[in-house]
Structure formats: structure tokens, C-alpha cells
Amino acid sequence: MKKDRGQIYIIFLCWLLYTIAQLGRYSYSSNTTLIIDAYGVSHADAGLPTTYYFFAYGAGNIIVGLFCSRYNKRIAVTLALVVSIISNVLLFSGIDFRYIKYVWAANGFAQANLWPIMLLTLGQHLETKRMPFAAIVMSTASYGGTFLTYGISSLNSLLGVDFAYVFLFGAIGMFAVGALWFFTTKHIDDEMIPTVTEETKRSKFTASAVIMLGALMLFALIANAVSGGLKQWVPSILKESFHLDDWLAIFVSVALPLISIVTAFISAVVYDLLKNFILSSAIMFVIAAALMPLVITFLDTSWPVIMVLFVTIYVAMSVTINQLSVQAPLYLKDKMNSGFLAGLLNGACYIGSAVSTYVLGIFADNDGWKGAFNLLFAMSFLAAATAFIYYLFIRRKERENVDVEDVDL
Question: Which of 18, 146, 289, 372 could form a disulfide with 257 if both were Cys (CB 3.0 to 4.6 A apart)?
């Protein structure tokens, strides 16, 4: 019973920490429209701090994934939250816009420590039977935190509260959860469950496994490029294309993370049906690619229709992101280090966000939002085609009894 309670507490603590950390992550992007007005900058300039953040976060995830099993998780998470708190306090204080991108890059690299360490902690302390439950719970953390951040930003705008207070709220929330983590995880590594061995790790990293990981990284990158671009720019699209008030544009945008909380369950169901991350990714990218032309058609005509399309695309991409960054690291803990796989795939996700956030801003400035969605269509189509081709290639090799999947992904 004590062991069960301990495992449930670890799941709860990892979920709570990562959920609250979203306040310090999306405090900037949830206020993009207000920042554009406050500082008088272009879409591209306003998107640059988020781009810096995601590049630092993506690269940091990969680096942390490689080394997180070798250092003290308790101290690393605490220090990461301290840096993120300082970054948010600096933006709350109203620093010059020229320096925001550098501060936000530091914030990104600090927060890059969280996800790989959370997944590594779960992989080291949970029995296999608890992995599906942990995957569903952790899948809701990002969306729940994003909903919380955008909800606070919308409420602030409606009440006339300065958007800068979102940065302060984020700092306070991270301080509280950081203290909880620091003071309750002193003995967290005393009862770890053995997972992947060094011999197993060496045997799994063959050429076919590396190719498979490369494919999954590509799909993670494109999926988050699409979903991250939507999350960043939907408030601006609604304001500029349909003339919605700032608070309403931000509030309506909350539908993306709120509805996408259900993707935690959808992802589990899809994987139970298909038992294949590649095929699942292919299907989700087909959905996104099929809906992009409708977005282009209805842009500037009906914002409720556009929001239905946005939500559907966002959910499809979120299923792929959930499966690659949450389910795969936890389900494969006996075959590969959970922290490493989480860092690799989550890092790819946010490099995709970094690219799309800035590039979509450039397209919006030069070709309008229809040009931006033409780009997202091309990316989704490319990913769908690649996934299907790779899936068919693997199936053909399996029929020929050729071992192409040393790591069953």
C-alpha cells in the first residue's frame, strides 16, 4: 500500500510541476497580440522571443535527454525553476524589448530540464502496469497548463489588468511548486525500479533503430510546428481577420488547449487500436493536410467555422505529439532510457515550434495568413507522405523476414 501511494504521489507531483511550469512558458505567447500593440513591433519581431525560446528548449531537451540520468534530478529541476522564475520576473519588470529574446532563450533552456527529468523519474519509479495511467495524466499537463495561462491572460485583458502580471503569476506558481518538489523529493532515488540495462541499450542502437528515431523526430518536429504555430498565432488571426477584441480573441483561443486535453485519451485509444506510432502519425497528418485548404477557403469569412477547423487540426497534431513525447518514452522504458527518448522527441517538437513561430510571422507580414496556411499544408502533406511510405517499407521488410525494427516503435 505504501509503495502504491508513493507511485501515485510521484505521478501527481510530476503532473503538477509540469502543469504549473506552463505558466512560465506561455506567459509570453499568450499575450502576443497585446505585446505587438504595447511595443509597436511586427509579427515577425513579436514571434522572435518565442522562436528563441523554442530553439533553446528543443536543443536543451536533446542535451538534457542525453545526460539527465547522470545528475541529481532534485537539484536540476529546482535550479531550472529558479532560472524560469527570474526570467518571468524580468519580463514583468518591463525590460527593453531588444533583450526579451535573450531572456526568453534562457527560460527555454532552463525549462528544457523539466520534461526529460519528469519522464525519467516516472520510468524509474513506476511499475509497468501504471504506465498507461501515467501517460494519460502527463498528457494533460501541457494542455492544462496552457489552458490556465491563456485563461488568465484573457481574464486580465477583459478586466483591464496589465498583461505583464501574467509573468508575475507564473513566477509565483513556479516558486510554490518548486518548493514542493525540493522538500518532498529528498529520497526520491532510494527505491528506483530497474529498467533498461547498459547491455540492452547497446544492443538496440543499430542502424535501423537510428533511422526509426530519425523518422519519429521528423514527425514530432512537423506536428509541433503546426500545433505550435496555431497556438501562437490564433489570437492574432482572430483579431486581424475577424476584428475580435483582444480578450475575446485570447479567450476563444483557449479552446485549443482546453479541448485538446481529451487527446490524452484519444492518443491511448488510437495506440491500442493501431499499436504503431508511424501509422498513427500518418493518419493524423492526413487529417491536418485535408483540412488546411478549408482553412484557406473560410479565412476572413466565419470565425466559428475557422475555430472548428483549428481545433480539429490541433487535436490531430496533439495526438501525434502525445504519442511521441509521452507514450513512447514511458511504454518503451524497458528498451530505452525514458529521459533520453523524451528529450530527443520533445526536443524535436519544440525545434519545430521555433521554426514555425518565426516563419509563420514572416509569411503573415508578407503574404498574409493564407500564405502561412499554404506553408502548413505543405508541411502536413510532406509528413503524411513520408510516414505512409516509411510504414509500407517496414511492412514489406517484415514480410520478407528482414529485421528492421530493433526498437519496437
Answer: 146
